[in-house]
Amino acid sequence: MSKIKHKIMIVSGKGGVGKSSVAASLSLATAVKGKKVGLLDADIHGPSIPKILGLEKSKLLISPLGIVPVIGPLNLKVVSTQFILPEEDAPVIWRGPLKGRLIAEFLANVNWGELDYLYVDLPPGTGDEPLSIAQYIKNMSGAVIVTIPSDLSRVVVKKAVRFCQKLNVPILGIIENMNGFTCPKCGTTYNIFGEGAGRKIAVEMNIPYLGSIPIDPRISECNDKGEPFIIKYEDAPATKIILQIAEEIISKLGRKSA
């Protein structure tokens, strides 16, 4: 871990907000900017990063220097529980201490090499895995909180914000995912999941607002096929916003380390 310049947690207060999809896209967007990037899928019970990146058949290897990450698109280095399961649909039925040991193993014994950024995709909520990650990585660069525009998510997002604050993890900002669908035929925008809750929370809690990612059905299609959306659809509005968010994160952390 000493050769990794910046470590960033991707957090959500609840499931179903597209956090892992955002984590994968943000990691790739950072790699597009010319950075050396790693992605740790710390969602032990529901790892989805390998599927999103088309790596679900891959396995971790052991070398004299430690665990070797799987190499994904744009030379992204990826580690996930999915890579050590005997079968793709094998459940992980572990209690807290065992999960803590696995996370410690990934953090201590993976040979990440030199990285500019390591993104850590956490499971939703504020349970064992997020707590273990935050405690093991003492010099966490920051957290990105992913939510949706619905008011229903506001309370749980605030819990995620408080969680980061209590653990002294700087909050880089909030991303509002699934923010409106624009009909390609008539141009009308439909706010299917509500409107503006992420921005409201950012204002209320005085934390940065990184941006809103619109609904694009092709994102789900790409995730199902293991084809990274931002690579396949370079000119899509959602891709441009994700690249802008990655640039802002790079700029923020660059200023802090300068």
UniProtKB/TrEMBL annotation:
<comment type="function">
    <text>Binds and transfers iron-sulfur (Fe-S) clusters to target apoproteins. Can hydrolyze ATP.</text>
</comment>
<comment type="subunit">
    <text>Homodimer.</text>
</comment>
<keyword id="KW-0479">Metal-binding</keyword>
<feature type="binding site">
    <location>
        <begin position="13"/>
        <end position="20"/>
    </location>
    <ligand>
        <name>ATP</name>
    </ligand>
</feature>
<protein>
    <recommendedName>
        <fullName>Iron-sulfur cluster carrier protein</fullName>
    </recommendedName>
</protein>
<dbReference type="GO" id="GO:0016226">
    <property type="term" value="P:iron-sulfur cluster assembly"/>
</dbReference>
<comment type="similarity">
    <text>Belongs to the Mrp/NBP35 ATP-binding proteins family.</text>
</comment>
<dbReference type="GO" id="GO:0051536">
    <property type="term" value="F:iron-sulfur cluster binding"/>
</dbReference>
<dbReference type="InterPro" id="IPR033756">
    <property type="entry name" value="YlxH/NBP35"/>
</dbReference>
<dbReference type="InterPro" id="IPR027417">
    <property type="entry name" value="P-loop_NTPase"/>
</dbReference>
<keyword id="KW-0408">Iron</keyword>
<dbReference type="GO" id="GO:0016887">
    <property type="term" value="F:ATP hydrolysis activity"/>
</dbReference>
<keyword id="KW-0067">ATP-binding</keyword>
<dbReference type="GO" id="GO:0140663">
    <property type="term" value="F:ATP-dependent FeS chaperone activity"/>
</dbReference>
<dbReference type="InterPro" id="IPR019591">
    <property type="entry name" value="Mrp/NBP35_ATP-bd"/>
</dbReference>
<dbReference type="GO" id="GO:0005829">
    <property type="term" value="C:cytosol"/>
</dbReference>
<keyword id="KW-0547">Nucleotide-binding</keyword>
<dbReference type="GO" id="GO:0005524">
    <property type="term" value="F:ATP binding"/>
</dbReference>
<dbReference type="Pfam" id="PF10609">
    <property type="entry name" value="ParA"/>
</dbReference>
<keyword id="KW-0411">Iron-sulfur</keyword>
<dbReference type="GO" id="GO:0046872">
    <property type="term" value="F:metal ion binding"/>
</dbReference>
<keyword id="KW-0378">Hydrolase</keyword>
